[in-house]
């Protein structure tokens, strides 16, 4: 009898795992809280790395699909000071395989992963409410009243994972930086000056121990993220444009006035995202019927660009462990031991990067990274 596997969360990590497991003949279902695949996908473009995200897609047989959907030229990068002076720029990161980080929007990446799955694999409108152990596996109860059973549950349900509490009681800590995220539609006409600076790629703007990252998207919109040191702020939507603009003009006082156009023209609500990180040395005793991947396992700030790549590599390594071990407990132990070690190393690097980019010498630090 086949092991029934439930993946909680239909992000890139969870969908990659489902694809890899189906290649092995596994019986797998993805439970996703979104009501349908037509729900708009927000967020910046994703740069996939050759030894993680791209590798997972290669093993999943999806390289050709990726090459049809990725955005050539979207890796064009400009580093600016807060007055919008270009300090460094380079659009060619593909000279060496290790530096090749092609960009793809979140929506097309999700679509190509969804299209690779057996029809019916993803059960939409499935917001997990509780898990209870039953017959050596788990009974899953969802907000819509439905119930399901699985022998093995994989929590790919992000920063606010409900699955994580059944694996470990280790909590994340506040990393000292809060991000405000927003999006502007039709940037060419809405904010032409910033659109021109963006040049179809990404802007990294640093100064006064603060950061602003702006990314173009294939639909003509852009997304932006401010980052600054502050006390731990409540997460959530920000629907008051006047208050948000006043906050930006006060907090980023002295910056080129053009940057305020992002807040003047952003779609509401904006999103406040205090940044958290799991302890780099986290450890727990593995269980035979439940595990984690992606942010649910190793949440960290985004300032090393590793999030989606780590999640997709988690999916690859977990699928390989399950294929190699006949005992699920041994497979999960093997996977989690390697995953925690790898994630701990990247978390340390990410925390160092987060601090360095929001230091008085943040601009010089970033330029030195790109030049190297």
UniProtKB/TrEMBL annotation:
It is an enzyme of class 1 (oxidoreductase). Its EC number is 1.14.13.-. InterPro entries: FAD-bd, FAD/NAD-bd_sf, TetX_monooxygenase. GO terms for biological process: response to antibiotic. Pfam families: FAD_binding_3. GO terms for cellular component: cytoplasm. Its cofactor is FAD. GO terms for molecular function: FAD binding; monooxygenase activity. NADPH binds at residue 40. Gene3D superfamilies: FAD/NAD(P)-binding domain (3.50.50.60). It is found in: Cytoplasm. FAD binds at residues 47, 106, 295. Monomer. Consists of an N-terminal FAD-binding domain with a Rossman fold and a C-terminal substrate-binding domain. This is Flavin-dependent monooxygenase.
């Amino acid at each position: 009898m086949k092991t029934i596997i439930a993946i909680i969360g239909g992000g890139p990590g969870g969908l990659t795992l489902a694809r890899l497991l189906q290649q092995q003949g596994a019986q797998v279902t993805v439970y996703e809280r979104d009501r349908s695949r037509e729900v708009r996908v927000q967020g910046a473009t994703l740069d996939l790395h050759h030894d993680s995200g791209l590798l997972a897609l290669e093993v999943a047989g999806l390289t050709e699909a990726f090459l049809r959907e990725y955005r050539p030229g979207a890796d064009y990068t400009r580093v600016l000071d807060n007055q919008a002076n270009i300090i460094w720029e380079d659009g060619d990161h593909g000279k060496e395989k290790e530096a090749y980080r092609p960009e793809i929007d979140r929506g097309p990446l999700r679509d190509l992963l969804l299209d690779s799955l057996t029809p019916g694999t993803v059960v939409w409108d499935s917001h997990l409410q509780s898990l209870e152990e039953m017959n050596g596996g788990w009974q899953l109860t969802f907000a819509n009243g439905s119930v399901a059973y699985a022998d093995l549950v994989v929590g790919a349900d992000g920063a606010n994972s409900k699955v994580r509490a059944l694996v470990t009681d280790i909590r994340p800590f506040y990393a000292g930086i809060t991000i405000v995220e927003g999006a502007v539609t039709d940037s060419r006409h809405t904010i032409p000056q910033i659109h021109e600076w963006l040049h179809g790629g990404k802007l990294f703007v640093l100064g006064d121990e603060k950061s602003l990252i702006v990314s173009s998207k294939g639909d003509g919109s852009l997304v932006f993220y401010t980052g600054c040191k502050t006390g731990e702020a409540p997460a959530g939507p920000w629907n008051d444009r006047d208050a948000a603009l006043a906050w930006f003009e006060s907090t980023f006082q002295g910056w080129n006035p053009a940057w305020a156009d992002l807040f003047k023209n952003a779609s509401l609500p904006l999103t406040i995202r205090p940044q958290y990180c799991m302890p780099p040395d986290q450890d727990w005793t593995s269980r035979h019927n439940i595990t984690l991947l992606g942010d649910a396992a190793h949440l960290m700030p985004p300032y090393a660009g590793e999030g989606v790549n780590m999640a997709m590599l988690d999916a690859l390594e977990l699928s390989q462990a399950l294929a190699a071990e006949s005992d699920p407990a041994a497979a999960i132990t093997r996977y989690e031991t390697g995953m925690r070690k790898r994630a701990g190393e990247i978390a340390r690097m990410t925390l160092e990067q987060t601090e360095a980019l929001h230091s008085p010498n943040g601009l010089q630090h970033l330029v030195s990274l790109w030049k190297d």
